[in-house]
Amino acid sequence: MDHQAKGTKKGRAALKADEAKVDLIAVVVAVNDSEPCLLTIGNADTLPSGPYALEHRSLQSGLRGWVEQQTGHPLGYIEQLYTFADRDRIGAERQERAISISYLALTRKEQATGSANCGWRSWYEYFPWEDHRSGTPVVLDILRPRLIEWAEGASDATTRRERRQRAAIAFGFDDRNWNEELTLQRYELLYESALIEEAGGGGDIAPAAVSGKAMIADHRRILATGIARLRSKIKYRPVVFELMRPSFTLLQLQRTVEALAGRLINKPNFRRLVEQQELVEETGETSLETGGRPAKLYRFRHAVLDDRAVAGTKLPLARA
């Protein structure tokens, strides 16, 4: 299922006229054993990517070609994320402007044909502070005093107050609620405070177990953008089913949503919401994978995509 960005022809002409280097980058996501996984290449520090060339029929066809060439994995659902074109995003030593057009791709891990140059890694290896399924992560106890120290290090009272407020909102400090959709804002704060490797020297970089696995250039920023988009989108569009097998139990569906959101969901409320919105239908079969009594198997009701009410279809995160 493609969601081609508007203005592709105009965009191609503008890119050619500007003669800037344009890269196509994919955030390819799957959920395996209740763990959100990211498809990476190299030393698990690079997102699949490649330059946009004139022989590519479209931006999306170029992206699909590069991902399949580098990983052996054909892409299904993709949507455009964001265009990154900051002048200093790659490094001051680069003279030309580097433009990256990023895409979010949802797939199933078993669909990959395999490549020695790629692998799947949990996205929580890169963002350990984002997984709240077992409670507040310990890493936040380490990051909080460092962020407060950074905030207090500002030269004027206004900036100090603004920094403290941003940190409190993004990380849920001072008894504020944790907002799972603020993944990018949290990453940007850690970058600004020089607590992560990508920020370069000059700061008290936290250990990798706390600051997460680094990635090349701004690939972790792009990944944060993809996570934030997906966490938001599963609440109002049924894209989570792109990650599910053709048949699944309701518990497997719930665990997938929890894995993506990084927090637990109230089981009765979740099931009631799914059934009320008629997102799934029974297959007539059962599964023994739960370890207990046989569980009913369901499948996504594709007719929901044709309903006028699809814009209101929701999988909200019912709080535990």
Question: In words, what does this structure look like?
Answer:
The chain is of the alpha+beta class and 320 residues long. The protein folds into three domains: 18-124, Nucleoside Triphosphate Pyrophosphohydrolase (Alpha-Beta Complex); 127-212, no CATH class; 236-307, Winged helix-like DNA-binding domain superfamily/Winged helix DNA-binding domain (Arc Repressor Mutant, subunit A). It contains nine helices and nine strands. Strands 1, 2, 3, 4, 5, 6 and 7 form a seven-stranded mixed β-sheet that branches. A two-stranded antiparallel ribbon has the order 8-9. The radius of gyration is 21 Å and the shape is globular. Mean pLDDT is 86; it is low at 1-18.
Q: Can I get a quick summary?
A:
It is built from 9 helices and 9 strands.
> What structural class results from the helix and strand content?
alpha+beta
Average pLDDT, to the nearest integer? 86
At the fourth level of CATH, the homologous superfamily of the largest domain is: Nucleoside Triphosphate Pyrophosphohydrolase
* Count of discrete structural domains: 3
Q: Tell me which CATH architecture of the largest domain applies here.
A: Alpha-Beta Complex
| CATH-defined topology of the largest domain | Nucleoside Triphosphate Pyrophosphohydrolase
What gross morphology would you assign? globular
Q: How many distinct helices?
A: 9
Largest sheet: 7 strands, mixed
Radius of gyration: 21 Å
CATH class placement of the largest domain: Alpha Beta
Helix fraction bin: 25-40%
Return residue spans where pLDDT drops below 50 for at least 5 consecutive residues.
1-18
> How many DSSP-defined strands?
9
Task: Output the helix-strand order.
Answer: EHEEEHEEEHHHHHHHEE
* Distance linking N and C termini: 33 Å
* Proportion of beta-strand residues: 15-25%
